[in-house]
Amino acid sequence: MTAIMTTTTRERVRNIGISAHIDSGKTTLTERILFYTGRIYAIHDVKGKDGVGATMDSMDLEREKGITIQSAATYCDWKDHAINIIDTPGHVDFTIEVERALRVLDGAVLVLCAVGGVQSQSVTVDRQMRRYGVPCLAFVNKCDRAGADPLGVAEQLREQLGHNAVMIQHPIGLEGEHRGVVDLITREAYTFGGEKGEDVEVGEVPAELVEVVEAQRAKLIEALADIDDCLAMRYLEGEDIEAEAIYPVLRAATIARKVTPVCLGSAFKNKGVQPLLDAVVRFLPSPLDRSYAALDVANDEAEVALSGDPADPLVMLAFKLEDGQYGQLTYCRIYQGTLRKGDFIHNTATKKKVKVGRLVQMHADEMHDIESAQAGDIVALFGVDCASGDTFTDGRSVLTMTSMHVPEPVVTLAVAPTKKQYQANFSKALNRFSKEDPTFRVRHDPESGETIIGGMGELHLEVYIERMRREYRVAVQVGAPQVAYRETITRRAEFDYTHKKQTGGAGQYGRVAGYIEPLELDGDGERHYEFVDEIKGGVIPTEFLPSCDKGFRAALAEGQLIGFPVVGVRVVLNDGKSHAVDSSDRAFQTASRFAFRQAYPKAKPVILEPVMKVEVEGPESFSGAMLSSLNKRRGMILGNTNTGSEVRVQALVPLAEMFGYSNDLRSATQGKATFSMEFSSYAPVPAAVQEELVRRAQQEAKKAKGA
After folding, report:
1. How many CB atoms lie within 10 A of CB 215?
2. Strand pairing category for 569-577 and 529-533
3. Per residue in 227-245, pLDDT tens?
4. Phi, psi of 540 (to 5 degrees)
5. pTM of this prediction?
6. Per-residue three-class SS string for 197-241
7. Domains identified in the chain and CATH numbers
């Protein structure tokens, strides 16, 4: 891609993500796409049993564990269309990889298991797609497995995710009899031959399927007739509607997210992938079909629509970083303008100007050098220092792209290198990982002197600890997992505190009075604090009000019961007193901190814990063991679903009870059950648990004081 593309060429670009619940077959599907488009010449197994591993799982850890940890970008061509693909992880611990991929993509393929259907991470991915308005196709994979029910999965899409899901294909056989698919639009049957499914045979619909295919086609046209008046008129008049009339309506409806076309097949058995590629280029949007906006920093961050024109000023977002031994690799999406090797670009966040020394397209971990790129392209810059989320321009404008959603960490660990000589590499590793991954947080605990790392789950932190050992040769000592608790209040309480100190010369004086009351929390427990100024008559001078606010914030951050931040508090300041000489910022900050401490115990404080939505899947014969394993961990069962010989149990379980669950579940089900979990909300801990947590916190405080 060394020449500047024309508008016509840009209409033939597709930027897509492959997203799904863990183990639905995303990476296997991507491997087949690369094979059928000629980007690779051999298909390899995801688990790496053949000693090679899937192309997109380039990290050793990914091949060993058989999961995707980092999103990987590649590109290919299909029927005169250029397709940029990002394969994303399915495990909820690596949800930021999905988040930042969907932030920059024009369309997506939502992969669903024909047996498992809509699963917990499918719901999360769908929420992320909605957040960024990403149109999608659904691909019901694993139609060769026992219990496969693609029509039932389409129904789940409608009921559980609220999609207007329309089948555009029908299976030719299921389970062991799965041979191919029927295109409902063209009434053509596709069967797949050859050693790797590369020979696609197009024929007539099998006689036994004609009736059901016509019924399914009528449902598809009915759904589109609700959207397009011209099609509705022809449908009502009983006309046979040809494929050429369906395509533009279905494409427009898909891009507008009014319809989700459903394809199906079995990626592992090499069936249905080529028709899926046809659907991608036919129905998903090009960069010209999506509208994007930036914020004008020079004009009070007013929203500016981006044209997507290569001739307009450059606007480019750095959405992912990889820091290697030879420098930083920065993945970027160009929204407007043209970028050439050797150009100088401006970082809106740092206001620094840098030169583009090397411009590449990524194929998993391979870099392919290019001379230029333009609006709609996903490329990588080598050796450019920046942060994830920075916007680059060519200096003709001061625009910035809107930030992406970054969830808060829910698990923390205390980590330390086992030997002093590891300290330098230990620090390098932590700096690199926190720069690459916004959900990986590092902080120093001033009281214990420990380094605390935070992340989205045990596996998330486990992977980074293993990467320290492999990539930086650092052996790490790990403390017990710590849950990100919060504290809050449950009722109103008054405060009236005077801070008075005389030490000779100017002293300190400040009086604050008012009350604290509960503030309704957001679902994620992150509505922290509200400060309300009801001071009358200037009893506290206006210049000291920010100091009061600062003092209350400091008290909230300290935590009062077990040292975790206090959230969901409104502070109303309605009285006070100042001194002409002794009042100062410091005096009112101190008064506010102690006033909060005075009121807090009277406000009936409680500890909040993160509660996870847990989904356990396994053989029906082990359903009792699965339910029992959740009940033992203070789980609240939401329901269970039978899918043939399998059972799926959904429950809400406190995160504190989930440590070590994978080993217990394996033991209880002979290794046949799996589980996934994602953050649901914060909830108060039971009284007995609160007493125990407070007791432990007091013991630790005494130890720290004694030391």
Report:
1. 11
2. parallel
3. 988 888 888 888 888 989 9
4. -115, 115
5. 0.69
6. CCEEEEECCCHHHHHHHHHHHHHHHHHHHCCCHHHHHHHHCCCCC
7. 13-289 (3.40.50.300), 292-400 (2.40.30.10), 411-483 (3.30.70.870), 487-603 (3.30.230.10), 610-689 (3.30.70.240)
